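Progress narrative, work stream C.
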Amino acid sequence: MIVVTGAAGFIGSCLVSRLNAANFNDIVVVDNFSAVKKENNLKGKKIIEFVDREGFFDWLDANYEGVEFIFHLGARTDTMEVSKAIFDLLNLNYSKKVWNACCEYQIPLVYASSAATYGSGTLGYDDDENITSLLQPLNPYGESKNDFDKWALEQTAKPFFWAGLKFFNVYGPNEYHKGRMASVIFHAFNQIKEKGSLTLFRSHNPDYADGEQMRDFVYVKDVVDVCYFLMHHRKNSGLYNLGSGKARTFMALALSTFNALGVTPDINFMDTPETIRDTYQYFTEANMKKLRSIGYDKPFYTLEEGVRDYVQGYLVDNKYM
């Protein structure tokens, strides 16, 4: 059995699809299973058991001998959430329990970290474990992810294989339920369909023109391919960046979305809300050398390729992966 926590969510449900496509059908999914996510994101997938998040550790105590691998993708991912108690509960302490169980039962583990751990990027975007304790995330979500990374690195007891994946700006199918936390591409598509135009945040940094703010956008199909690779690799434990490795502008993203829809670009700008202006990231780019060095050699989707596949293959017809 392969366990996927957060399986009803965006990346988790896409990973279940990727595993099914490779004929891994003994999948145990763990989540709090809101009706919308369960009915849509997990519909039609080959799953042998649904386990509620709160009952997972009792289930694992009774079934660990049959568990081959755990992907721990469940987390509170709302970057606007300010309650440290919620992040401590769901992102830090729950993850510690998953880690300790994997140590006890000798189960390999891949878990979701985040590029939010890098904060403003003053120390760069290198997945060098020696700088983990020096990073200064800009919000409680990033802090919770970095707190767990630091804790994991400090442990003497570790799963025989583990990897923490620092996801950059992931986009793709199955994020319909995420509301304001869905990708910019998802929101751009909906704005263009509704209004024929798109509004981006204006730059408040003199080093960047409006629309020239840059992020590392990574397609979810690449993310789950890396997860699949690591499930088989099971060597070289540690923290790994997971982005495309190429920063692109929001203007490029916008133009790619218009082009995928066959609509003439009409782009406007609005002030970045003051509530997030001081913590706004103007540049992120994953250094992907570490993952490449352990043998992952598959090319990543370019932004244009990923947006076209996402828009034309999924968003236009409201399809799921």
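Work stream C, second folded protein:
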Amino acid sequence: MIQVPRDDRSVIGQWWWTVDRWSLGAILAIMAFGVMLTLAASPPAAERIGADSFIFAKRQFMFLPLALLVMLGISLASPRHVRRLALVVFCGSIVLLAATFVIGIEIKGARRWISVPGLSSVQPSEFVKPSLAVISAWLLAQSRTERRAPGYLMSTVLVGGVLALLVMQPDLGMSVVVASVWAVQLFVVGLPMWVAGFGAVAGAAGMVGAYFLFSHVRSRFDRFLDPTSGDNYQVNTSLEAFMNGSLFGRGPGEGTVKAQLPDAHTDFVMAVAGEEFGLVVCLMILALFAFVTLRSMSRASKETSLFITLAATGLAVQFGLQAAINMASTIQLIPAKGMTLPFISYGGSSALAMAICVGMLLSLTREHAGLREAV
């Protein structure tokens, strides 16, 4: 057990006594489940493409330690440094996001990835999410504290621009996450009810428009509402995995459905957890995500700095919402959506982007973070 004296005034000492150690422990537990499930789910996926059985596991184990270092390093930062980092990450990821239309690789009809030698591919939108949440929080806080600051307008322009790029890819799932995080921040900052009502109507109109404009969105909604209207192979196979696993699972390595699920190591990794480790372990994973999200929002609500409250709330909602979308689509509570489960699904971009998100969250929810804010 780590022993750090309370009077230790070093950077590490101050960090240890101010960081939310309960949330940190929960995040490390999620990463541990990620290691276990990567080993369980990735070999069949590798064998299907004729590669070494553990090639996906080896790649993921290269990224997870790096993600852990990034997360811990950012959690040491002050709120001002978090804001500056968010600006740098946002500018870089926006450039890459726009570049996907020129040099991006197309997968299943969408251009969301850029091929990077030695790193497979990078999904820039993963890095846009956490950085935009922090920048939007700063703009909204500035507009609230300094009445003449055009924070609301600038925040709207930034979010609108990002949503436009995401819809053009198209990536409707990521668009929903970005819009939802911004909506929560607007709610927390205290916009008039008529603005909230207008936003709700606009969001509903956007979903209806997506249904009629994008054939893959229409297909997924139709198959969700009427499973007999199309191919539901992955969802049906996922549900079969949960039924096979029952309460305590078949045991590590004993699952068979993962050999039939094309995305068992990414979008449907929870199906592997359900079959091999059972409902009990799935509920433990769900509880860990819920704990980090709710505890972070609770700590954010007690902050005296509006910027910290808005930024931490946005990051916490993003973390929890992405996990909820992944798990809900796995058990057909919502239409199928390709979205990774943070720190558990295979994916280097996702792991590093989520490390930035959680590192910022841990930094902003440190005790007396408001006193460390240099405005």
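The two ends are 36 Å apart (CA to CA). No further action is required on this item.
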